[in-house]
Predict the structure of Methionine synthase.
Amino acid sequence: MPAIPSPSRKALEKLARERILILDGAMGTQIQGLGLGEDDFVGHGSGHACRHHSDHPQKGNNDLLILTQPEAIEEIHFKYAMAGADIVETNTFSATTIAQADYGMESAVHDLNVEGARIVRRALDRATAIDGKPRFVAGAVGPTNRTASISPDVNNPGFRAVTFEDLRKAYSQQVNGLIEGGADVILIETIFDTLNAKAAIFACMEAFERTGIALPMMISGTITDASGRTLTGQTPTAFWHSVKHSRPFTIGLNCALGAEAMRPHMAEIASVADTFTCAYPNAGLPNAFGQYDEGPEDTAKQVGEFAREGIVNVVGGCCGTTPDHIRAIAAAVAGVPPRVVH
Ligand SMILES: [Zn+2]
């Protein structure tokens, strides 16, 4: 029996035909602003002690804060919701066994995804209690730190650090956790290798078949160089053709070089895709210190142009963006008609 579309898919498609929807902004910048140390990351002192053990240092393992600093993470989600986000992402970009292996925290993956979705739901329910607006939890699925298509070893081009099957298993565990925690959407993001994304899509399809309910998928690639290709060499059009069989709710781009560099590639996707489109650029290019200089008004002005050009249905922010960026973006696209899907 094929899975039936979830109520969230119908609700999102209806809203997306009425107006441009708003996605949230970066977690990293907000987490950095908390100035947390190793003790905070593992939950000693002020936090919640983590029941999962690892011998590795955990500072920088942002996803772990779901379990050790849940109040702080909920507050960030709440700020984005109140800034105007209709769709808010879980803090689970690296919550797979493959990515958590760097921190020896593979055992925490199930809890991270279940709790990660629950925390967003709590934050969004608080916001909705204030203004009555419906909001949606997007379970964030990152690319992992390994690529299935190319070799990391220049002397051994046939070598792969990860297989499709490794990725499928890891993503299955993540997606099942996100669904258990109440995700309304699965957002597969920052895709630099479409083969990794296809493993995530496959894991979603299996999960939807198991539950009988197909959540909407948002699929977002990243263009990492000026030639306009993904890391594994695909053009935006090729990227769309590689994933369109999954009938995603949105296709689009995030992260990378900022809004200005993203614009022509987003326009290309909008011209070929027969589904809604989503763009959430970084706050410009990172400077020499890896920080982002673009203020809320700068990013919002450019994203507002995407809207007036008619190339977007969902917009938000990636690295370096803040609740103020999202508030400015929401204001910049308010009243601009959404892209028409043909
Ligand atoms: Zn980013």
